[in-house]
Design brief:
The complex is a heterodimer of chains A (135) and B (290). By secondary structure, chain A is an alpha/beta fold. In chain A, 53% of the residues lie in helices and 13% in strands. In chain B, the strands form four sheets. Chain B has a seven-stranded antiparallel β-sheet. In chain B, strands 2-1-3-4 form a four-stranded parallel β-sheet, sandwiched between helices. In chain B, a hairpin with a 2-residue loop joins strand 5 and strand 6. The chains are: A alpha/beta (135), B alpha+beta (290).
Chain lengths: 135, 290
C-alpha cells in the first residue's frame, strides 16, 4: 500500500442535516474504520489558504464530502490545487436509501445514523481501493 | 424562531479538528435554535454576498474552536464588525476542562459552555404568524394527462398557478407555495432548496426561495403577494420530496396573503392551468420530436 495518507474533508455543514451525516461518516472513517490511513482536515484552513493544509492536500489523497449542491468541500479542495480523488454528496447516498432521512443538524436520528454507517463503510472501501491502486 | 439569541449573528469556525472545534460548531447550532442567524464560514469565504443581509442587521458573535482562530481571521479579512468573540479552547481551560483530541463533543462540556453564555434561553411566546397554520390538510384530487411519454398531474381544485409553473394552494388568507409536477419532471432530481427568510414581504412574482436540481437551478416565483410566515423545513432537508409529491408535502413556503383578489387576476385556476400545460407540453414535444 501507498505511504500516502487519505484526508477525508467534509463540508462545514452549518444548518443542514445531510451535511451532519457527511461529517459523522467522516469521523467514523478516520476514528474507527481506517485510523492509521485516513485523517481529516479542517476545511476552514483551506479556505484561509493555510500553507500546511494546502500541502497536505497536494501531497496526499483527498476525499471531499459535501452535504448539498453547493459542493463547498470539493470546490475548496480544487482551489487548494488539485481535484479530490473521490468526491461525494450525501444526497447520492440518500437517493439510494430514501428511508434513511437524517432528522436534524444536531441529531441526525435513527435513519441518519444508519445512513452514516452505510456511507462510512462504502467510503472506507473506496479509500482502501484507492490506496491499493498505488501498490 | 425563539428567544434570547434573536438579533445575533454567529460566525463559528468550521469545527472539525478535536473536541474544541466540534464544540464551537455545536454551540453555534444551539444558539441558532434560540433564534440566532448562522454564517457558514466556508460558504461565507467563497460567497460573502450570501450573508450580506444577516451581517447587516445583527450583532456578530465569532466562535473559534482552537488557537488558530479561523473564524476570527475570516471576520477580520472580510472587515466585519465583531460585537463578541469566544474561543472554546480558552473557555474550557478557564473551566479546568481539558478538551478531547477526538472531534467528538462531550455533552457535559457543551452544557457548561452554554451555561457560561447565560444558559439556554427561555422561549418567547411565538406569534401564530411564525408557525405553519395547520390548514391544508384536505385530500387533493388530481387530474392526470399523458402527452407523448410524459404523464402529468394537476390538482382538480384549490390551487392557482402562474405561467412559471408555480402554484399557490389557498385556504382563507393563507397560501402555501410550491412548484408543479411539470417543473419537477423537467428539472429532474431536486438536490437543494434554499427558503426565504420568515417575515419576508413578497410582491406577486417575487422569488420565494430557490431550488437546484441535478440539471438546473430555478427560483420559486410567488403567485401571490404577502408575508412569509413559515417555510417547510422538511423540504430543506429532503428536496427530493418535490419529485415524490410536488403538490402536497413538498410545499415550500406558507404566506399570509396581502391581496389575493388582486393577485388572482393574473393567475390560472386548476382547470385553466391544465389546459395551459397540455398545450405547452404538446408544443414542446412537437419542437423536440417533430
Amino acid at each position: 500500500m501507498s505511504d500516502k495518507k487519505v484526508y477525508v474533508i467534509p463540508c462545514s455543514g452549518i444548518g443542514k442535516a445531510s451535511a451532519s451525516v457527511g461529517r459523522d461518516a467522516t469521523y467514523r472513517v478516520v476514528e474507527d474504520l481506517l485510523p492509521d490511513r485516513a485523517d481529516t482536515l479542517c476545511l476552514a484552513l483551506l479556505t484561509l489558504e493555510d500553507e500546511e493544509a494546502r500541502e497536505k492536500v497536494r501531497d496526499n489523497y483527498v476525499v471531499a464530502i459535501d452535504g448539498c449542491a453547493k459542493d463547498c468541500a470539493r470546490k475548496n479542495v480544487e482551489a487548494a490545487g488539485r481535484a479530490p480523488d473521490i468526491a461525494h454528496r450525501v444526497q447520492d447516498y440518500l437517493k439510494k436509501h430514501k428511508d434513511l432521512k437524517p432528522e436534524a443538524v444536531l441529531d441526525v436520528g435513527e435513519g441518519g445514523r444508519k445512513l452514516v454507517e452505510i456511507m462510512s463503510e462504502e467510503l472506507a472501501g473506496e479509500i482502501v481501493g484507492l490506496l491499493e491502486e498505488d501498490d | 424562531m425563539k428567544g434570547k439569541s434573536r438579533g445575533k449573528v454567529i460566525l463559528p469556525c468550521n469545527g472539525l479538528d478535536k473536541e474544541a472545534g466540534t464544540l464551537a460548531r455545536e454551540m453555534a447550532l444551539k444558539l441558532a435554535e434560540e433564534g440566532a442567524e448562522l454564517v457558514c464560514p466556508v460558504l461565507f469565504q467563497r460567497n460573502p454576498a450570501r450573508y450580506k443581509k444577516e451581517l447587516g442587521t445583527g450583532e456578530l458573535l465569532v466562535i473559534d474552536g482552537c488557537k488558530t482562530g479561523c473564524a476570527s481571521k475570516l471576520a477580520k479579512d472580510k472587515g466585519l464588525k465583531i460585537a463578541g468573540r469566544l474561543n472554546v479552547t480558552e473557555m474550557l481551560k478557564e473551566m479546568g476542562i481539558r478538551g478531547g483530541k477526538k472531534p467528538v463533543p462531550d455533552p457535559e462540556h457543551l452544557s457548561r459552555l452554554l451555561a457560561a453564555l447565560g444558559g439556554p434561553g427561555e422561549e418567547e411566546a411565538e406569534g401564530a404568524e411564525e408557525v405553519p397554520s395547520g390548514l391544508f390538510t384536505a385530500h387533493v384530487e388530481m387530474n392526470e394527462f399523458m402527452e407523448g411519454k410524459f404523464f402529468f398531474k394537476v390538482p382538480k381544485a384549490g390551487y392557482f398557478f402562474n405561467e412559471n409553473d408555480c402554484w399557490a394552494r389557498v385556504e382563507g388568507t393563507r397560501a402555501r407555495l410550491g412548484v408543479s409536477d411539470y417543473v419537477q419532471q423537467s428539472a429532474s432530481d431536486m438536490v437543494f432548496f434554499e427558503p426565504p427568510e420568515i417575515g419576508k414581504e413578497l410582491e406577486q412574482f417575487d422569488d420565494a426561495g430557490s431550488l437546484e436540481s441535478t440539471k438546473t437551478a430555478l427560483d420559486i416565483i410567488s403567485p401571490v403577494s404577502g408575508k412569509v410566515v413559515a417555510v417547510n423545513g422538511e423540504l430543506v432537508d429532503a428536496p427530493e420530496l418535490i419529485n415524490q409529491d410536488p403538490y402536497i408535502s413538498a410545499w415550500a413556503v406558507e404566506v399570509e396573503m396581502a391581496d389575493f383578489e388582486g393577485d388572482r387576476e393574473l393567475l390560472m385556476d386548476c382547470e385553466a392551468y391544465l389546459a395551459y400545460l397540455k398545450e405547452k407540453v404538446r408544443k414542446e414535444n412537437q419542437e423536440r420530436f417533430g
